[in-house]
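Good morning N.,

You mentioned wanting to compare the apo and holo forms, so I went ahead and generated the holo version with GLP. This is what I fed in:
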Amino acid sequence: MELIISQSIKTLNDYCAELLSKCIKEKNEAKIGLATGNTPIGIYQSLVSLFQSGEVDFTNVRTYNLDEYLGLPKSHPSSFYSFMRRHLIDHVNLKEEHINIPHGKIASPEQECIRYNHILAQAGKLDVQILGIGLNGHIGFNEPSASLSPHTHIVKLTEETRRVNSPAFSSLDEVPTHAITMGVASILRSKSILFMALGKEKSKIMKQALEGPVTTQCPASLLQLHPNCTVFIDEKAASELDVKNNIYDVQYI
Ligand code: GLP
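and this is what came out, ligand included:
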C-alpha cells in the first residue's frame, strides 16, 4: 500500500487536489466519489483554487457522495448536501445533474437505497473515491459490526459517531440516529481510493485499519484488500504506524 506522509496538511491537500485534477483532465467524464467530514475540506479548497486559476474544469465531472443523514432535507445546514455545496459545489462549475448524493428526507428510505444503488451501478467503476475514516474505523457510514452490507443501505449510527459528529448540529439530540450509506462493495469497486487521515486522534485507528486484521469490526481495514488504495496521512496520524514495514511503499512529501 502506498503511504504518502507529510508534516504539512496543506502539502497533502494540494497533492491530492493535483491528482484529482490530473484525473479530471485525462478522463473525458471523470467519476469521483466524494466524502464529507473535516478531513477532505482542505482538498476541496485546493480544488476550488485550481478551478479559479483555470487549471481544472468540472463540466463533464460526475460526483457520487458516500452518504447522507436520514431525515435531513437537502436544505438543512448540517446535511451532507449542504456541506458539499459550501465546500465545493457552489465554487466550481459542476453541473447539478452530475451531482449524486443520497436524499435524506424521503418517504421511503428503502426505495432511496434502490435508487442510489441503481445510479452507482449505471456509473460503473468510479475513477477515484475520496475517503476519510471515523474514530471507530467507519468508512462512509459503514459502522463496525459483525457483518457489513455490500450495497447502499440504511445504517443505525453508533452513539459514538453521533457524539463525534454533534458539533455540526446545535445539540446532540438533533443528530439523526440513522443514515443512508454506500456499502463497502461499492466503495471497494472504485478504480482507486484516496484515503486520507489527519491528526493525532486518528493515529490509533489508522494503526488498526492498516496493520490490524481485516475485519468488519474495523470497516476501514477492508481497504487493505484494495489493489489501488493510496493513504495520505500527516505525521501525527501516522505516528503509530510501523512505516518501515514492507507492507508499505512510503513517500515523504
Ligand atoms: C463522517 C463521514 C465519514 C468521515 C468521518 C470522519 O461521519 N460519514 O465519511 O470519513 O465521519 O470525519 P472527519 O474527517 O471529520 O474526522
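The chain has a mean pLDDT of 97.

Happy to go through it together on a call whenever suits you.

Best,
F.
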